[in-house]
Each structure stands twice: as structure tokens, then as C-alpha cells.
Amino acid sequence: MSIDPVKWESGELAILDQRQLPQKEEWIVAEEWEQVAEAIRSMAVRGAPLIGIAAAYGLALAHFKGRDMVIAKAGLAATRPTAVNLFHALDRVFAAEDPLAEAHALLQEEADANDRIAANGASLLSENATVMTICNTGGLATVGVGTALGVIRKAHALGKLKEAVLLETRPRQQGMKLSAWELQRDGIPFRVIADGAAAWFMKTHRADMAIAGADRIARNGDTANKIGTYGLALLARAHDVRFVVAAPTSTVDPRIESGREIPIEEREPAELTHVGSEQIAPRDCPVWNPAFDVTPAALIDAIVTDAGIHSPPFDFGVLARSHS
Ligand code: MRU
Questions:
Q1: What residue spans define the domains of the chain?
Q2: Rounded CA gap, 30 and 143, in Å?
């Protein structure tokens, strides 16, 4: 079932508030770019490609309302640091003669890219596959079928999927809340496991692949993604499970050679210490809450993009330059 998590509606941007899912489907109507920026910062809208698309519309909204584009671009760029799609999208729309047309074009390109990623990724799977994944990389994180979740959708459509195994994805639980919601809507078989159950699942069940999305891919293939992805890749290597990254070429950062240069967002302690508004940790409990980690290229067996299936050793210099 298709999901349109952002919609341009004659001078306003409607944003599906993902913080409310799966309980409620509520929409935020942004009339100014600042509201789009706040929706990105607060994770009402999230996922690397969708952050880029939302920001693109945010900047188009600033143009539409006759606001200062330089200030709007800086404000939108300051929302979340890790997903490079944000910066690529803002540069594109800022340079465009018609910012709104550019935002529409970006959305369509990402949807098309996802279809190609899905077909490329599913070709790596054989029959009766069990596929583990982390976070939400579906239509809520992009547009269309999604990236890693798009591969799972395609595998199901081709009759190759036994089940998807969704890591809950602490602390915000995008796997359990969002991916489960998407797969349930589509009637795709899945189970949710606690993040801490991933090793034991690999030990006691057959997993054919662990697949993750990406927020930024360096030229050498080092990949930033949701916190816990690095651990999943280590577990996959230890249990002889293929570890694959699925992402559009817009997620490749041509400016950086390795993952050491990727800025990692740290978010507020309350994501860990509270459940909803209720504090469950001791007061003033010290917390470290990085939102992402970097999986070294050496742990990645394949990176699937809209341009094809890339095998190690990775060199995204040429590919990325054509998209920068
Ligand atoms: O913090 P989030 O929910 O924006 O993090 C999302 C992820 O880490 C996704 O795996 C990544 O953005 C790829 S989405 C296709």
C-alpha cells in the first residue's frame, strides 16, 4: 500500500506525524519553512531520503511565501546533521530556477530509485528467505516502497520471503512502531524482536540476510545508519549471515573518504530515560544517546543502490560525483 508521508497542497506542506504512529494518523500542516524544520528536528518526519524531500519542500515553501532563501536554507540545514540527503536536497532546490518543481522532481526520483533498489536487492535472495532489518526504511522513511524495507516488499511480491524480522530499534522503536505498521498494512509476514535478541535469533534460527538503510555512505563504503546497525553487522559476520546496505545514490557523500568524517547526531536523554512523558530512569541519570553509528565497509557484503549491486572493495567516488 503506498504511503505519501509528505504532500504539497497548494502552498502548504502536509506532513504525516510519525511520532503518533501506529496509534494515530495525524497530519501537521506547515505554512512556513520553520514548521517544516521543526517537524524534521522533532522527528515527526524522518528517514534520510524523506528528510531530504521534506527539506526540499520546506525551502520551496520559503520561496513560495517570499521568505529569505538563505536564512531558510541555513535553518533547515541545522535540523539533523547525519543524513546527507538533507544537504544534497537543499543545495539542489536552492540552485533551481523553480524550487517547487525541483522538490517535486526530487520526490519522484527517490520513488523511482526505491523501485530499482528493491529489484536489485531482492535479486540477492533465494526462496524462503528470512531477512532481518533495523529501524524503518519503508515508505515512511522515503516515498514509495522504501529502501531496505522495499527489498523485503519486493522479495515478498516475488514469493521469496519467509519472514521479515524487525529489530525493535531502541530508543525510538522505529522498527516496532513504523516498520511493523507498514508490513502489517501490506500483509507481509514479520516478527518483531528486541534489539538484544538479534544475536540469539541468528544463533537459533536461519537468517539469510540482515539488511539496513543508510543515512550517509562515504566513498570507501563506510555507512552511517540508525544506532545498533554496527552491532547488527558485527553479529551478522559472527554468524555467517550476509549483511547488506540498501540506499539511493543520493545517500552517498562524495566529499568524504571514510566514516570517520560523518557527523553523528546525539539526541536528548529523554529518549532513553522516559516512556512518553513518564520518567523511568533515576532523576539526573547520566546518558549518552547517539542516534547513529558507522558500520565499517569491511563488515558490509554488498551495498545495493538504484545504480546496481556494489561489492567490496567499494569505491563510490565516481558514482557519487555524478549525483553531486
Ligand atoms: O533517526 P531516523 O529515524 O531518521 O533514522 C532513520 C534511519 O536510520 C534509516 O535507516 C535511514 O535514514 C535510511 S531510511 C531509508
A1: 6-112, 121-323
A2: 19
Phi then psi for residue 175, to 5 deg, are -65, -50
The DSSP symbol for 266 reads: B
The fold of the 6-112 domain, in CATH, is Four Helix Bundle (Hemerythrin (Met), subunit A) (1.20.120)
How many residues does this entry show for the chain?
Answer: 324
Ligand 1, pocket-test mutation among 84, 225, 244, most atoms within 8 A of CB: 225
Rounded to whole angstroms, the Cα distance separating 256 from 200 reads: 35
Tell me how far apart the alpha carbons of residues 19 and 1 are, in angstroms, rounded to a whole number: 20
Contact indicator for 80, 86 with CB cutoff of 8 Å:
yes
Reported as type and span, the H/E element at residue 13 is strand 12-16
| Predicted local distance difference test score (pLDDT) of residue 69 | 98
pLDDT for 317 equals: 87
| Residue 210 β-bridge partners | 132, 243
Listed residue (7, 90, 108, 104) closest to 52, CA to CA: 90
- CA 170 vs. chain centroid, Å, equals 15
121-323: CATH topology: Rossmann fold (3.40.50)
Protein residues with CB under 6 Å of any ligand 1 atom: 46-49, 83, 135, 137, 141-142, 147, 174, 213-215, 225-226, 291
Cα 122 to ligand 1 centre (Å): 20
Does the predicted TM-score (pTM) go above 0.85?
yes
Predicted pLDDT of residue 320:
54
Ligand 1 centroid to Cα of residue 66, in Å, is 31
User: What stretches in the chain show pLDDT beneath 70?
Assistant: 319-324
